[in-house]
Amino acid sequence: MADGVFEAVVACVVDVLQVPAGKVVEEAVFTEDLGATSLTLVEVVMALEETFGIDVPEADVEAVRTVGDACDLVRGLT
Amino acid sequence: MTAGRRRVAVTGLGVVLAAGTGADALWQALLGAPPEGHRAVADWDPSLWLGVAEARHTDRFTQFAVAAAASAVEDAGNPRTAPDASGVVLGTALAGVGTLERQALVRSDRGDKRVSPFTVPMIMPNAAAAAVSQRLGRRGPCRTVTTACAAGTDAIGSAARLIADGVCDSVLTGGTEAALSDTVVAAFHNMRALSPGGRTRPFDAGRDGFAIAEGAAVLLLEAYEAAAERGARVYAEVLGHASTADAYDITLPLPDGSAAARCMLLALRDAGLGPADVGQVSAHGTGTRHGDLAEARALTSVFGSGGPPVTSAKGITGHAFGASGAIEAVAAILSMAHGLIPPVAGLATEDAELGGALDLVRETPRTWAVGPVLSNSFGFGGHNGCLVLGPPAT
User: Fold this and answer.
1) Predicted ipTM?
2) Whole-angstrom Cα distance, residue B187 to residue B182?
3) Do B377 and B153 meet the contact criterion of CB atoms below 8 Å apart?
4) CATH code 3.30.1300.10 for B9-390
5) Residue B32: phi, psi to the nearest 5?
6) Which residues does the record list as O-(pantetheine 4'-phosphoryl)serine (modified residue) (chain A) (predicted)?
7) Which of A50, B125, B175, B301 sits at a 20 to 30 Å CA gap from B59?
8) Is the pLDDT of residue B235 over 80?
9) What is the mean pLDDT of residues B155-174?
10) B117 to chain A, minimum CA–CA distance in Å?
């Protein structure tokens, strides 16, 4: 999808988790592939909220497993 | 440590201060002119010791401790010790207060949801010791001492006991502080503890409070025999420690200094020494009206007139609260190594009310017959901590 969401999500993930952009692909699992912990995943979601001006409900945070999930979450709220 | 079975060697020193990083920066500062104002660690760059994500998730007081601890281990020649016999004991007074202030402002400006999920592990007082333990794989006792401005001294005493008692073979110990937040500065100002001119003048007639300092000092302590066996450079020996409480007031010292005096005598007894054996006193000497007066009375009751030379580092270093005792322990060790006692910076006219019995080191460094140093620290809450350090056995 050329809506710019993926690119913006990548930027947030790279900044928060300090991982190379090349590793941040749709299928990447935050914990296993990108080294996120429960607390740094919260920080990723907070960064998405800031970037996209959205408010992510608590329950939705727990459903975010992959970078693709995060993109879908953003698209559903924007 | 007469109650313990083993002697305790200091084999590594790590210092992070406004004056610079490393024990030599502290020593050069102690021989120089006193700076004015608060002593922030300007242009602090945690990236030498921590990754970007780690630095974001640690308060400055933890970053200083990690840097000072790593420096102390390196200074000691990176000795290998069994992880289970390696401990960490650090002191701090105000811990992650800077992070708490920033997150309180975030919450006030932007709401609950913007508060960092790392706030609690950043502000908790044990964060610094935990980070040192984690990064260096030290799996023995990992403790944090919070006796306000006596914390650094009490931490070293507690760490030495772990070695004397055979619990640990190696302990990283000292103190760390990063409390130059606007709220803390305003609070100290409002309680009239800060020098309006930003000059700490211990024992001076015109003393009017202290300047605040940031920083950390960490010492590597090892079992003396083991350190000697591996040919380690032994800077000093931790001979004794004691702590007492004033049981009097939350900020004011007991006016007659009696609980502080008892602490000094107990520390000397722990070292198997008497007042006549002390070669130098490293005073708490913060430059407050009440504090210096009580300490002078305590020192006079222990040593009488004709006691050992007395200095205070705080005219140079400012007051780093829970790190101050550790910084001054390093200063005492450097004083042994160099055979010189730095003068009390900021002292021009001794306060006559102090009684005139103290042999204060004035104006220029003084050569001395290197011997045991009694290092005093006193904290809000009425905490008294005294440490006795000795030169390495020859």
Assistant:
1) 0.90
2) 9
3) yes
4) no
5) -105, -165
6) 38
7) A50
8) yes
9) 98
10) 6
Query: How far is residue B132 from each of residues B68, B186, B331, measured CA to CA in Å?
Result: 10, 31, 23
Query: Touching check for B53 and chain A: CB below 8 Å?
Result: yes
Token pair belonging to B114: 């913007």
Min distance B84 CA to chain A CA atoms (Å): 27
Q: What is the CATH superfamily name and number for domain A2-76?
A: ACP-like (1.10.1200.10)
Average pLDDT, chain A: 94
pLDDT of residue B3: 61
Q: Taking the model in full, what pTM does it have?
A: 0.96
3-state DSSP assignment of residue B332:
helix
CB nearest to A18's CB, from B52, B113, B116: B52
Q: What is the pLDDT of residue A62?
A: 86
What are the sequence ranges of the domains in chain B? 9-390
> What's the CA gap between B319 and B13, in Å, rounded?
19
> For residue B361, what are its two tokens?
């080191």
Confidence of residue B394 (pLDDT cuts 50, 70, 90): low
CB B375 within 8 A of CB B236: no
